[in-house]
Design a protein that fits this description.
The protein is mostly beta strands. It has no helices and eleven strands. The strands form two sheets. Strands 2, 4, 5, 6, 9, 10 and 11 form a seven-stranded mixed β-sheet that branches. It has a four-stranded antiparallel β-sheet with strand order 1-3-8-7, with no helix packed on it.
């Protein structure tokens, strides 16, 4: 599956951004999706995931209550709505797809098998 993320930018603390990821190739509606982020020099960090049917979402503790992941299978798109942004949210955000189809339950970073190019989010204080 090919993934293309967009929507990054610069925002002040407390602001909002909406990231989108457009998928092509494998059947999008069969794949769990998610987002990870990376600060230069550090390991990638799990942000959020959603099952193929949208029934289960999962968030890291650092973004829970502020970020919302959703998907539109008709448009092969997954969205990350980021509210109440903090400077610590500054990172390159990557869209990711599950390596296995039809997975239920919580999808974790270890389940991802494909990643798109990143989109930079910068939050200033």
């Amino acid at each position: 599956v090919q993934l293309q993320a967009s929507g990054g930018g610069s925002v002040q603390a407390g602001g909002s951004l909406r990231l989108s990821c457009l998928a092509s190739g494998r059947t999008f509606s069969a794949l769990g999706m998610g987002w990870v982020r990376q600060i230069p020099g550090k390991e990638r960090e799990f942000v959020a995931s959603i099952t193929y049917n949208g029934a289960t979402t999962y968030y890291s503790d650092s973004v829970k209550g502020r970020f919302t992941i959703s998907r539109d299978n008709a448009k092969s798109t997954v969205i990350l709505q980021m509210n109440s942004l903090k400077p610590d949210d500054t990172a390159v955000y990557y869209c990711a797809a599950d390596r296995n189809a039809w997975r239920g339950g919580r999808i974790t970073q270890a389940d991802f098998g494909s990643w798109g190019q990143g989109t930079l989010v910068t939050v200033s204080s």
